[in-house]
Amino acid sequence: MLNKSKVSSKLSELLFLELKEEVLLKIFGYTSDNELYFPIKSKNIINDLQSGDQLENIPVKYFIEGMSFILGCDNQFRYAKEYLRILKKNSWSMQLINSFIAESIKNSQQIDAYVFLRAEYTVDESSVNYEKLISFIYESKEVYNAYKDDFLDIVSEGKNKKYAMAFLYESLYFNDTGDYSSAWDSLNLYYSYDGKNNESILRYKDDLMIMADFEKGKDNVNADPKLAFKLLVPLIDKLPDNAFLYFYIAVACRNLGLYEKAIYYLNEAKSIDDTIIDIYNEIGLNYAQIGNFQEAIKYFRKIFEATKAIDVCTNLIMCYINIGDKKNALLHLEIAKKMNKDDDIVKQLEKLI
């Protein structure tokens, strides 16, 4: 069962009327021991009364609309259980609910359409109605952006029922948030619950595989640079204009001791996007590793002027020490001490000079 929707504030649009027992029995074939009030959208009753209609002549579809609106907004509402029994007892009500959905979509009333889709699923918790509901909320950005918590509740509902589409839309959600590894896991669960392929899903799968490998490779450039290199290099053909791809390959190369190869990939990254500051720092690190400290200094100075980062300052100090430039080494040591005299690297360098 779905949780109470965040859209429940729309209940203020309803008025409540009491139906006599004989009217309730005649219209819905239903009796109740409880006092029942039936919801109706206020604009409908006002329009009809202004047209000269009597209260007792209100069309039945208005009551179906009101009850389904309640169920779509808040299935824990005081009379919700009785409304649900009435709608289930009168199967023709589903046709009306479908018409409310269609009319809302036609009139660009996305939130109302969402409420009626929730009601449809509440009355008939079939996989077909579930798919209609979850696909609508995801694809309607107005609803998705406003009621993302609802979307996650609906995903959870479907997962509990082992509906394949729940896992597909969970995958899409993770993909949207940049959690490609989790998106890949959810997509695999979609298939394990007999999820079917179509052209768009296959295209999504291919794109996701690329991003999942990218994320896994990026996360392993330090912990397992060999694995990272193996995952990332094949992606160059698929992501030729992604500067960060070349950057992460370069970091993996540096950690593997392939410094000149790292510089090559960093220059490729820089040719795509020369605004990524970390690229220049990496180039400096690799030049320092191959003993070209003069070239390393050029890059570290460029970065330090832009960031005033203490780790870049200490890199500069090390380069000056290595070329025997004690004057600049001491000058930058004083700068580093002003930035953070308690930094461990700064303390070590002070002893070294």
UniProtKB/TrEMBL annotation:
<feature type="repeat" description="TPR">
    <location>
        <begin position="277"/>
        <end position="310"/>
    </location>
</feature>
<dbReference type="Pfam" id="PF13181">
    <property type="entry name" value="TPR_8"/>
</dbReference>
<keyword id="KW-0802">TPR repeat</keyword>
<dbReference type="InterPro" id="IPR011990">
    <property type="entry name" value="TPR-like_helical_dom_sf"/>
</dbReference>
<dbReference type="InterPro" id="IPR019734">
    <property type="entry name" value="TPR_rpt"/>
</dbReference>
<protein>
    <submittedName>
        <fullName>Tetratricopeptide repeat protein</fullName>
    </submittedName>
</protein>
